[in-house]
Amino acid sequence: MSVFQGSNPGKYSRALTRVVRAAVPFVIALGLGGIVLLATGHNPLAFYQLLVREAFGGVDRIAATLSAATPLLFTGLATAIAFRAGVFNVGVEGGFVFGGLIAATVALQAGLLAGMVAGALAGVLVSALPGWLKARWNVDEVVTTLMVNFVVAGVTGWLVTTFLQAKGVANSATALIPQGSWLPDLLPPYGLTAGVLVALALVVLYAVWIKHSVLGYELRQTGLNPRFSAAQGIRVGRVIMVSMLISGAIAGLGGAVHALGVVHRFVDGFSPGYGFTGIAVALLGRNSAVGVALGAVLFGALASAGTTAQLFSDIPLDIVDVLSGTVMIFAVVRLWRQR
Amino acid sequence: MITGILTSALLLWTPLAIAAMGGLLHRVGGVVNIGLEGQMLVGALIGALVSGATGNWALGVLAAGAAGGVVGLLMSLCVTRLGANEIIAGLGFTIVLSGLIGYLLRSVFDVSGTLRVTGLDPLPRVLGLDPLFLLAVVLVPVIAWSLRNTAAGLRLRATGDGFDAATALGIPANGIRDIAGTIAGMLAGIAGSHLVLGQVGLFNEDMVAGRGFIALAAFYFGRARPLPTALACLLFAVFDATQARLQTSGVPAQLIQTLPYLVVIAVLTATAVRDARGKSRRAG
To answer: What is the mean pLDDT of each run of 10 residues along chain B (284 residues)?
Structure first.
């Protein structure tokens, strides 16, 4: 499994291994980003210092980081649950976007709670078809979930320019949700909403559920070895279906929280790829609850700090994509030989 | 109207088909290439820059192919040598490349998204057809023939069909995958250069607009066989040309754009159902 385990398979060395493994992709990303910055005439160390200060220096910046981490907590968790069951769901982006549109539409008529529920159900709707196809016919879920993202993008783009478009609004957006149906702010001057509490509660729930429930056990077993699980009497198809539905519900709820807490409507281009960053979060966190939480905060810090750093230096925000994409690539590589 | 749609469909077909042929080769070698999108974007930028700097479209196309090939090789090395998941590597490379290109546009070229290259030499046209269209037309039968009749083609298929068996027989399966990945990147890069040099005449960071994923859809639809894949590209190009034409007449363009993706889900399902039925019949 790793370099350290052979000599001393103790608890601490395993924890150390985990930390080293999670740090390596970040070090590579910072190195690569440093080369890009140097080549374009910027000082990488100064920029990284600025990033850290803008991400964690002060209550307002920490609030901004947690706010940016909130959608990633949802998408990372949604991805992790499916990965844990051995289902390679890359369709969380679609669930997030569709959940956002439906939540924003329903909340206009029926208020906050109905909007959240509707968003989660919309996410379920998006993941149900690929989940069923995988469970029933063993259709490759990687491709179907990837394709579903584009279908959702087209359908939501169409809805928001036709039936659901707000009157008198030039760009493609739904009507503004009345303030009574917004998710409440936690620290009023700063834009941190109660959505982060929902997300953290789900992460804790996931940690307990995956370890201490029958279904959680079946999920882990199916992810480790589906054939052995089937031989044990686990209904693998059902577990796959359930993991996809939960994954979709969390993705949709994430979209709902983003719509009702941050954007207060649905606009075209609602998600700058939260679902895809969620994949990186889940991979970096090795699908564990703590890992997902840390990963989401790290990527949230990158996004929020990158946005303000852009204002103080002439370094474009796009450098953040270079960093997070690199982390994604190297989150799963083997950098040492395995025996 | 119909001839208008056909003409623009053939223009849109060229980059799709070239990129899809690259993805097809990689697929035959056993790797699903999700990075075509990013490789096309790199090809588009490099093609524009080199064509502008040299005033020669051919050099632009070659440079685009070389740049795409380098990216394709790097991506393949991550998959074959470092054990990266091919889907994650593909998505990750696409994110890194679009981020890097956006960064360079804003910090080096001082433009926000769209780059006009002075002195850009567009592809020449003979009877409305450009050289890359001819390349695409030639590639389809050549790849089909090579996969059946050349040693390289047989080795590539062996690598894809049975990676361990091929390795056991002494075929350098990882090396072959790297070569296939490099060729896929080269073709995707050339396809990207067609967007700039053959169609638009300037570079935009969003100009690939999912064409890499449509190419992926095409070789899934064609089940990694050259002629059906090329025809799938033609179908998708006709969809694209039709929606561009019908945009003003109230036909929902966004819905037509989802058709290629829906087609892929349907094809994958049909294939899986047939496989499952065939298996149960053999077992019974």
So the answer is: 81 95 94 93 96 93 97 94 87 93 90 86 83 95 95 92 88 92 97 93 90 91 92 91 73 82 89 82 59
Q: How many domains does chain B have?
A: 1
CB within 8 Å of B188: residues ≥ 6 apart? B18, B19, B22, B23, B35, B36, B39, B40, B43, B68, B72, B212, B215
Number of inter-chain CB pairs under 8 A, A vs B = 142
Flag whether residue A337 sits within 8 Å of chain B, measured between CB atoms: no
Taking only residues 111 to 150 of chain A, the set having a beta carbon closer than 8 angstroms to any beta carbon of chain B reads 129-130, 133, 137-140, 142-144, 146-148, 150
Within a domain: residue A338? no
Element of type H or E holding B204:
strand B203-204
Assign residue B119 the CATH number of its domain: 1.10.3470
Answer yes or no: is A51 within a domain. no
Residue A157 lies in a domain: yes
Domain annotation covers residue A292: yes
Number of domains composing chain A: 1
Range of the domain at A222: 74-297
Question: Does A52 contact chain B (CB < 8 Å)?
Answer: no
* Inter-residue contact B60 to B119 (CB < 8 Å): no
Which of A2, A83, A150 is best to mutate for the B interface (most B CBs within 10 A)? Answer: A150
pTM score, whole prediction: 0.89
